[in-house]
Amino acid sequence: MNNPTPNYSRRKILKMGVLTATAAYAYSVSGISLMGKSWALSVTSLNEATANSLLQISRSIYPHPQLEDLFYAASVESIDASVASNPELRKALEDGIATLIKAAGGDWTSLNAAKQTELLQHVASEPFFQAIRSNMVVSLYDNPKIWPKFGYEGPSFSKGGYIHRGFDDIDWLPQPNKES
């Protein structure tokens, strides 16, 4: 008879652990990210189609190829929370996004960046665009998890300020001529 419960020796368990750790290390060193697949956009006020379009449009407004959609999704969820108590803003967002998607021919992601920018410039003064922009600038850039991706170490006050932590480390500029 077959035993339905597999026998794992200590050696097999250690071998599986080493293989798993090696694979995880290889993924991290090669730059492969599984992070983008482990989240779900969760909205309560906006419908799913509007929220997904908003995520794509937000990425076009603040394009950062090094950021996963996860960070943009957090901003969309923040916008969703703000429209929960403001039906006029929700309607303006839904109508504005629908107008942009229609102008894009139904698929925002199929447009090149120049065409997306052109369409966004046409609506830049609209209240729905300003609501997206103002929320995104705070919810996206105030996220400590993305700061390292931009080379920002975070606030320096708790570390004694910048004066002894690289205040004058300007190695990216040419050295000044000593004669001038």
From TrEMBL:
Q: InterPro entries from the entry? A: TAT_signal
Q: Which domain of life is it from?
A: Bacteria
Q: What is this protein called?
A: Twin-arginine translocation pathway signal
Q: What organism does the record attribute this protein to?
A: Vibrio hepatarius
